[in-house]
Recover the amino acids of this structure.
């Protein structure tokens, strides 16, 4: 016998607020994006130490699989940003070629997710954040 979970979310107040005050919702959404971006950036370097290797004169301590990447050059962390695509649409992005490979892994390397865990965490916080900051109650 399968277990089914059903969830109904009433979004009428948010939809009404978007219609009446789209700029307020857009500002809130930009703020959420910036908070998420901050959480992503702070996650770098929080992995338990992995293997060490030397490249040139620098020794790097890799992250462990399943944890955010440790900082090597800082390029990935520095490249993280948020951009507005349209009203109520924002994108968090990185500016390096290898960010995708770290997030999802490759044939030769297990994933070091740094975006997904923050998005997962915000799934549990966004409703309360909207209620508090947009006064949806």
């Amino acid at each position: 016998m399968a277990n089914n979970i059903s969830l109904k979310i009433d979004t009428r107040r948010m939809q009404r607020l978007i219609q009446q005050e789209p700029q307020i919702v857009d500002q809130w959404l930009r703020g959420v994006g910036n908070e998420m971006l901050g959480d992503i950036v702070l996650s770098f370097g929080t992995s338990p130490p992995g293997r060490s290797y030397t490249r040139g004169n620098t020794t790097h301590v890799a992250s462990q699989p399943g944890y955010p990447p440790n900082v090597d050059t800082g390029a990935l962390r520095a490249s993280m940003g948020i951009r507005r695509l349209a009203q109520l649409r924002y994108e968090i992005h990185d500016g390096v070629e290898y960010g995708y490979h770290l997030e999802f892994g490759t044939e030769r390397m297990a994933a070091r997710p740094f975006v997904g865990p923050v998005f997962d965490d915000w799934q549990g916080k966004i409703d309360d954040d909207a209620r508090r900051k947009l006064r949806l109650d």
Notes: The chain has a mean pLDDT of 89. DSSP finds six helices and four strands in the chain. The first helix runs from residue 12 to 20. The two ends are 38 Å apart (CA to CA).
